[in-house]
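Good morning,

Attaching, inline, the backbone tokens for the sequence recovery test we're adding to the shared suite. The designed sequence is right after.
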């Protein structure tokens, strides 16, 4: 044979692409891949290791291990499902490929790619499924909560009114079934796409040329996959029936299935389910009959039915049958919504007491023992205003600071329960300046805060008597500090703290969290700043040891800091403290909890503990309304809201400020969600019996939960479904009258007198106004006392008479002639800020409003040397005789009350304390109370109440006599009170 010259050879019909890489290119690809893997997986491995060390330190390694193993198992399961489906679909399609004979007349454009794929069929056949499997596995492992709740779910003991299933089915089982169904859909869809693509590439399906064909194998495989997909849709229709009980079709009127859902949507689901079964049969039949028209017609029937039966029919019923008669036909479903919402958020009749309240006083406050207690404890200090005052007067050093919002708590002092504004003096890493920011100083010297500061909430050191034009008021109107720190450790402390050092706190672990390296170092000398004259070495149990080089290397990589490796400040006994925010520590130890946004410090057993409220929540609860615990601004889109349908404050957590110990306490033994999580993480939550009496006395009802509950009570206090539908009896949360922004008024903590015993009762309260109105409609308060914690009391005001709400009262007070004229003078040289407007029911039916007014000198230097001081107190009360509003305004609460009531009522109020010189630089005013001796009640000369002590004693005697039921003693006490008042009036008071 004679070889054909190259020039005479026929042109190539489609040259196979050369996909081989050169040696240099392969080395480059391998290097880049290793670098990419190191960058992606290196930080993951480092964070995993350091997280494990943190969980071992805190004793919650079982939580870490359980979550990690569950995530890994889910990743593997989803990856195997997706990867296996893809491999199977591609393999059966490849093996069923037809034999293709090349033709010179009709060249196949897919031939080059087909040949290239065959050359690397193992790489492509495994690489693509593995890629999809890994991606899907990473997504699937985030559903570890759904899986654990399904495996350990408890029963609620409550059946839903439509299907009769226990609520636990909707909370724990239904989400898991949905999870399985969703991933089955994903697996089948990806398998169908990969099967179709493989058949197309290898000739099983042809769209080119005149012959558009599909082989029998391709048709059978695709029909099986399509049939499986429709079968999954049948199961979806079955599960969709149960999701109707959480329908949002009727929002914002009510939640859950309505008339249309039950009488149109629910039957439609069953009809579509039956049609879906027929479709599955059609796809199976097409395998044997070899006729694609049968499944095509069945699919068209299913699509058409879903439009007509699933969409148009419910819409017509809603428009022409339901809306014209909505109040009647929706009645049973509104009843379900009311009952379920009350149960889901703990606002049912078993926890909420409703009382009709007239809004007009029928008795002088000084004659009501509970009112005497309330007036004695009226809070004048606003924790949201005085944070800068605390910082300026109690900061001591530039690197110390307090949280932006202080807290309110109560302590028993001299046998009496009193509320205090409290704060921990923490290290503020952001406040370090100059050489303090050097790595050694920042992380090994300035490591902790120092002290617990408290101030009585109902008094200041002295009244501001001068008006705004006199500078002699510079030392008046400030809190009376009780300081428990290192400087006072050797003396009597009002609130004794044995260990005042704070290594963990809100400021230390705030928006710019930092770490500290403590413990013995290579120099064997104390390094940490304690006072100007002493250094300290941490001896607590907190922190992760970093004595070995491997651990130091891990943390050096975590924080990208070489000094951790080479600094002599790090020794064999050193520890690293990180994750120092109390809220963050609780969320890490209990990732299933939603934490309250306001942790607060309390002194328990001589140690400073951060108390963090934890909520168990569910996103679905049959027929229950949705609420949010993060207080979004009005008008926030639903997609950006963290809506929930169930919430319980089932866990109280504490974080030790010195060693960071996290302790979780079971606070609600009846919560099935908490019991479920305790099954998931056995031993992580201590029983309710482990809560000490002293710790229990500092538990407060949490603000985030109360905000959600008051929003719901604004609607769900209504019992009658028809009235609920008309919204006539709804309430609203009032806007905050003390700020210019349109924000809702925050609830407030108050210490008030109990109606039955007249003893102080610590409560969280809020006023409520009419729906889109400003008149007072209700007053909601919840108890924090150990005996009846969580009991909600609702005072309902009459609708036939109008009681002014917060916004109206604010306008009345600031428009008063005295207030307006002095405010004009004050604003010349001061910034004015109003404190929280307290609403207090007193006078056996009346409402007292109290609002502190703070001033802050305007400095021409615009420095931080000025800070708020209490200058005036405004009060308002509705006159029972005339119905008009009385306004009181004065430097002290006593004077303001005397203007509204009489001197006897004013004398009940706690007087300002006398200021004494400070004993520690920068500590601010200190009074004898802070040294353990009684506070000297001053203000009698300056306020004009010369008989304040006698009046107080007489009122107390009257209260005791009334409680004893001895009418003779009561008459004698009443005569004594009248005598003291007469003497006071004769003295010209």
């Amino acid at each position: 044979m004679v070889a054909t010259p190259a020039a005479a050879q026929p042109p190539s019909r489609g040259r196979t692409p050369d996909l081989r890489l050169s040696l240099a290119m392969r080395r480059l690809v391998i290097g880049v891949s290793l670098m990419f893997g190191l960058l992606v997986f290196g930080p993951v491995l480092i964070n995993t290791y350091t997280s494990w060390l943190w969980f071992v330190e805190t004793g919650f390694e079982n939580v870490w291990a359980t979550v990690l193993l569950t995530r890994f198992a889910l990743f593997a399961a989803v990856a195997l499902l997706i990867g296996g489906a893809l491999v199977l679909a591609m393999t059966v399609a490849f093996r069923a490929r037809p034999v293709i004979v090349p033709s010179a007349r009709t060249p196949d454009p897919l031939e080059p790619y087909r040949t290239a794929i065959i050359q690397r069929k193992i790489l492509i056949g495994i690489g693509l499924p593995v890629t999809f499997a890994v991606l899907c596995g990473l997504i699937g492992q985030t559903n570890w909560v759904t899986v654990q709740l399904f495996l350990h779910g408890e029963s609620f003991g409550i059946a839903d009114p439509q299907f009769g299933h226990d609520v636990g089915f909707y909370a724990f089982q239904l989400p898991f079934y949905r999870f399985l169904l969703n991933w089955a859909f994903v697996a089948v869809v990806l398998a169908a796409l990969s099967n179709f693509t493989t058949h197309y590439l290898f000739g099983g399906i042809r769209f080119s040329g005149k012959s558009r064909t599909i082989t029998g194998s391709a048709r059978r495989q695709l029909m099986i996959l399509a049939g499986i997909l429709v079968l999954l849709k049948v199961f979806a229709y079955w599960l969709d029936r149960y999701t109707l009980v959480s329908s949002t079709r009727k929002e914002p009127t009510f939640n859950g299935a309505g008339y249309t859902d039950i009488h149109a949507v629910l039957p439609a689901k069953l009809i579509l389910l039956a049609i879906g079964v027929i479709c599955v049969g059609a796809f199976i039949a097409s395998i044997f009959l070899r006729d694609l028209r049968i499944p095509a017609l069945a699919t068209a029937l299913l699509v058409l039915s879903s439009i007509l039966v699933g969409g148009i029919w419910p819409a017509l019923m809603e428009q022409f049958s339901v809306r014209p008669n909505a109040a009647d036909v929706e009645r049973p479903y509104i009843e379900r919504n009311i009952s379920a919402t009350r149960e889901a958020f703990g606002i049912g009749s078993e926890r909420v007491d409703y009382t009709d309240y007239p809004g007009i006083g029928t008795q002088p406050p000084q004659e009501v023992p509970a009112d005497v207690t309330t007036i004695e404890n009226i809070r004048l200090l606003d924790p949201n205003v005085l944070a800068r005052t605390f910082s300026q007067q109690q900061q001591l050093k530039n690197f110390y600071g307090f949280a932006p919002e202080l807290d309110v708590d109560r302590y028993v002092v001299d046998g009496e329960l009193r509320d205090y504004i409290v704060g921990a003096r923490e290290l503020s890493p952001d406040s370090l300046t100059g050489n303090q920011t050097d790595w050694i100083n920042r992380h090994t010297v300035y490591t902790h805060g120092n002290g617990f500061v408290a101030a009585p909430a109902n008094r200041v050191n002295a009244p501001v008597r001068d008006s705004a034009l006199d500078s002699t008021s510079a030392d008046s109107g400030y809190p009376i500090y009780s300081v428990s720190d290192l400087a006072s450790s050797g003396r009597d402390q009002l609130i004794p703290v044995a260990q005042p050092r704070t290594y963990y706190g809100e400021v230390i672990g705030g928006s710019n969290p930092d770490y500290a390296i403590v413990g013995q170092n290579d120099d064997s000398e104390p390094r940490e700043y304690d006072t100007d004259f002493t250094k300290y070495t941490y001896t607590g149990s907190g922190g992760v040891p970093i004595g070995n080089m491997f651990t130091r290397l891990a943390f050096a990589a975590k924080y990208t800091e070489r000094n951790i490796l080479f600094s002599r400040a790090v020794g064999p006994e050193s520890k690293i403290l990180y994750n120092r925010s109390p809220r963050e520590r609780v969320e890490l130890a209990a990732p299933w909890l939603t934490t309250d946004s306001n942790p607060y410090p309390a002194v328990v057993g001589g140690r400073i503990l951060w108390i963090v409220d934890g909520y168990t929540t569910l996103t679905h609860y049959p027929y229950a309304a949705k609420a949010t615990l993060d207080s979004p601004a009005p008008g926030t889109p639903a997609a950006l809201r963290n809506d929930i349908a169930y919430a319980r404050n089932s866990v109280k957590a504490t974080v030790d400020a010195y060693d960071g110990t996290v302790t979780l306490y079971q606070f609600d033994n009846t919560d099935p969600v908490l019991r479920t999580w305790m099954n998931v993480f056995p031993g992580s939550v201590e029983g309710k019996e482990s809560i000490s009496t002293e710790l229990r006395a500092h538990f407060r009802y949490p603000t985030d939960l109360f905000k959600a509950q008051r929003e719901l009570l604004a609607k769900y206090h209504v019992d009658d479904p028809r009235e609920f539908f008309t919204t006539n009896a709804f309430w609203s949360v009032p806007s905050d009258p003390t700020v210019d922004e349109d924000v809702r008024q925050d609830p407030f903590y108050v210490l008030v007198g109990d109606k039955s015993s007249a003893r102080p009762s610590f409560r969280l309260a809020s006023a409520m106004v009419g729906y889109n109105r400003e008149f007072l409609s209700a007053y909601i308060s919840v108890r924090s006392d150990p005996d009846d914690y969580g009991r909600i009391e609702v005072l309902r005001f009459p609708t036939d008479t109008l009681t002014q709400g917060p916004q109206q009262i604010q306008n009345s007070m600031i428009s008063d002639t005295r207030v307006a004229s002095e405010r004009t003078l004050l604003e010349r040289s001061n910034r004015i800020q109003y404190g929280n407007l307290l609403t207090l029911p007193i006078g056996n039916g009346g409402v007292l409003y109290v609002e502190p007014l703070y001033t802050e000198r305007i400095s021409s230097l615009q420095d931080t040397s000025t800070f708020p001081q209490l200058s005036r107190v405004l009060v308002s009360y509705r006159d029972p005789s005339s119905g008009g509003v009385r306004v009181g305004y004065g430097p002290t609460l006593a004077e303001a009350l005397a203007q509204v009531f009489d001197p006897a009522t004013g004398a009940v109020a706690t007087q300002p304390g006398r200021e004494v010189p400070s004993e520690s630089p920068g500590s601010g005013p200190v009074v004898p109370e802070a040294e353990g001796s009684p506070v000297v009640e001053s203000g009698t000369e300056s306020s004009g109440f010369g008989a304040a002590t006698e009046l107080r004693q007489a009122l107390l005697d009257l209260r005791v006599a009334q409680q004893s039921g001895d009418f003779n003693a009561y008459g004698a006490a009443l005569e004594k009170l009248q005598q003291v008042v007469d003497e006071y009036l004769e003295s010209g008071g």
